[in-house]
Specification:
Layout lengths: L1 H33 L1 H6 L1 E12 L12 E8 L5 E8 L1 H6 L5 E7 L2 E7 L2 H35 L1
Antiparallel strand pairs: 1-2, 1-4, 2-3, 4-5
Helix pairs in contact: 1-4
Length: 153
C-alpha cells in the first residue's frame, strides 16, 4: 500500500500542475487576446452617453448580459461618431444618460469600441502575459518535478 501511494502521489501532483498551468495559460490568453487591437491601434475618447438600453430580442444562446449604451464622441478629425457599446451589468448601472464615459476604439473599425481607456487595456494585456508566464512556470516546475519524482520512485 505504501508503494502504490508513493507512486500515485507524484502523478497526481504532476497532473494537478498541468491542469493549473493550463488554466492560467487560458485565462492569460483570453485577457491578452481580447483587447489586442485596442492596445495597438486604439484611441481613447470621452463620450457622452445618449441612451442606456437592453436588447430584448437577443436569444438565449447570445450573451447573458445584454446591457448597451449609445454614445456620441468627436473623433480627431472633428466628426461626430455615434456608437453602440456592450457593457457588463456592473458598469451599465454606473453610467447615466447625459454623463460622460471613456471609450477606446479602433479608428478603422467603430464596431470594436469598448469601455475603458487604452491604458486599462494595456494593463489587462500585461496581466494576461503574466498569467501565461505563471502557467508555463507552473507546468515546468510542478509537473516536471513531480514526474521526475515519479520516475525515481
Amino acid at each position: 500500500m505504501t508503494s502504490t501511494s508513493s507512486t500515485f502521489l507524484p502523478l497526481l501532483i504532476a497532473f494537478g500542475g498541468l491542469f493549473l498551468g493550463a488554466i492560467f495559460i487560458l485565462i492569460g490568453w483570453y485577457l491578452w487576446y481580447e483587447g489586442r487591437e485596442l492596445r495597438n491601434n486604439g484611441r481613447t475618447v470621452t463620450a457622452i452617453v445618449k441612451e442606456k438600453f437592453r436588447k430584448v430580442d437577443q436569444d438565449l444562446l447570445g450573451q447573458l448580459e445584454n446591457y448597451y449604451i449609445r454614445c456620441v464622441f468627436q473623433d480627431p478629425t472633428g466628426l461626430l461618431q455615434e456608437v453602440e457599446v456592450s457593457l457588463r451589468s456592473k458598469h451599465w448601472y454606473q453610467v447615466s444618460e447625459g454623463k460622460t464615459t471613456q471609450l477606446t476604439y479602433v479608428p478603422d473599425d467603430l464596431d470594436e469600441t469598448l469601455p475603458g481607456s487604452r491604458l486599462s487595456w494595456q494593463v489587462r494585456g500585461v496581466i494576461g502575459i503574466v498569467l501565461m508566464a505563471f502557467g508555463v512556470l507552473s507546468i515546468a516546475v510542478i509537473s516536471v518535478g513531480a514526474f521526475q519524482e515519479w520516475l525515481h520512485s
